Amino acid sequence: MSISLAEDIRSVTDLKRHTREILDQIHQTGRPVVLTVNGRADSVIIDVKVYEKQLNAMNLARLLSEAEAEISSGQTRPARTFLAEFKNARNI
């Protein structure tokens, strides 16, 4: 996701004065808006749908990282063993 330096960095004062315009921009572009306080980046506003996608991607990355760590440490078992245990546990 890219940010337009000309459009996506706004002050908190701008947010107070132009809330609807800034929210519309976020929804239309899908890009986050960086809010500044005293000229420094302070917060980021992001569209909820974009946030949900990013949250899902982060959760998947975390799960994959955990799985890779288990593989690296030898915590594996044959797929047949897992499937048999899975079926038995769920009475399949």
Structural commentary:
The chain has four helices and three strands. It has 92 residues and is an alpha+beta fold. The chain has two domains: 9-46; 49-89, no CATH class. The protein has a three-stranded mixed β-sheet. The model has no long low-confidence stretch (mean pLDDT 94).
List keywords for this structure.
2 domains, alpha+beta, elongated, 4 helices, three-stranded mixed beta sheet
Describe the secondary-structure layout.
Blueprint lengths: L8 E3 H6 L1 H11 L3 E5 L2 E6 L2 H25 L6 H11 L3
Parallel strand pairs: 1-2
Antiparallel strand pairs: 2-3
Q: Taking strands numbered 1, 2, ... along the chain, how are they ordered across the largest sheet?
A: 1-2-3
Strand share of the residues?
A: 15-25%
Return Rg in Å.
22 Å
Determine the fraction of residues in helical runs and give it as a percent range: 55-70%
* Element-by-element helix/strand order: EHHEEHH
Give the biggest beta sheet: 3 strands, mixed
SS element count, helices: 4
What distance lies between the first and last C-alpha atoms, to the nearest angstrom? 43 Å
Give the count of structural domains. Answer: 2
- State the secondary-structure class: alpha+beta
How many runs of DSSP E, i.e. beta strands?
3
* Low confidence ranges: none
State mean pLDDT (0 to 100 scale). 94
Shape: elongated
Q: How would you sum up this structure in a few lines?
A:
The chain has 92 residues and is of the alpha+beta class. 58% of the residues lie in helices and 15% in strands.
